Amino acid sequence: MSTVVPPISPPGMPIPVEDANPLLSGRGPAAWAMRADVPDHTVHGEPKIRPMRAVPGSWVNERDPDPRGWPVLGADGVVAGTVTEIWMDTAEPQVRYYEVETTGGRRVLLPHGFSRVRARHRRIDVRAIYAAQFADVPPTRAADTVTLREEDQIVAYFAGGVLWADASRAEPLL
Fold first, then answer.
1. Domain range list for the chain
2. Which residues are 100's β-sheet partners?
3. Residue 5 reports pLDDT greater than 60
4. pLDDT, mean over the chain
5. Residue 51: pLDDT over 60
6. How far apart are CA 95 and CA 51, in angstroms?
7. Helix/strand/coil percentages in the chain, nearest 5
């Protein structure tokens, strides 16, 4: 029986990430904490982050764009999917995620902070990852809630993409 020993890096050097998809490695910019695997709750005991379909009386202000139905483009300019729902923070009414139905038919959450709403063009741009990489965004177990751990994993996936979505991003600029 043999064991796999990770490569040793000299002190001060980065640990190489050789995973098939480094965005799922849990290391470097894709690191996430082992938070509780339960939804965050409001002071009233309700799940804090919910899709608008699950929050009676919620709406998008008429002065704000409603991106439901808009395409989501990856960093390569290719359509990754379509926005199907807006997930909001019910304790502090604000957009937290966009639910995206990928071109492969999966429903994934796109963190609002990694998106750029292009109202004039009626689309959402994402610079962190490419369209094909939306297929591997970590899932949520439930259709109408997201746990603290799932949130960390989803945000870490997009953060990892800033550096590792393309091998050329990890190289020096000089």
1. 29-56+71-166
2. 83, 108
3. no
4. 90
5. yes
6. 10
7. 20, 25, 55
What is the DSSP secondary-structure string of 14-70? PPP---SSGGGS-SGGG------SSB-B-TTSSBSEEEGGGSTT----TTS---TT-
In angstroms, the CA 50 to CA 73 distance is 24
Q: Which helix (H) or strand (E) covers residue 151, if one does?
A: helix 148-164
CA distance 63 to 72: 21
Which residues fall within 8 angstroms of residue 90, CB to CB, at 6 or more apart?
42, 46, 47, 48, 49, 50, 55
Taking the CA atoms of residue 121, residue 124, residue 126 and residue 127 in that order, the dihedral angle to the nearest 10 degrees is 20
| DSSP code for 147 | B
Specify the CATH number of the domain 29-56+71-166.
3.90.50.10
Q: What three-state secondary structure class fits 149? A: helix
What pLDDT score was predicted for residue 62?
92
Task: Name the pLDDT band for 143 (thresholds 50, 70, 90).
Answer: very high
Position 24 pLDDT exceeds 60: yes
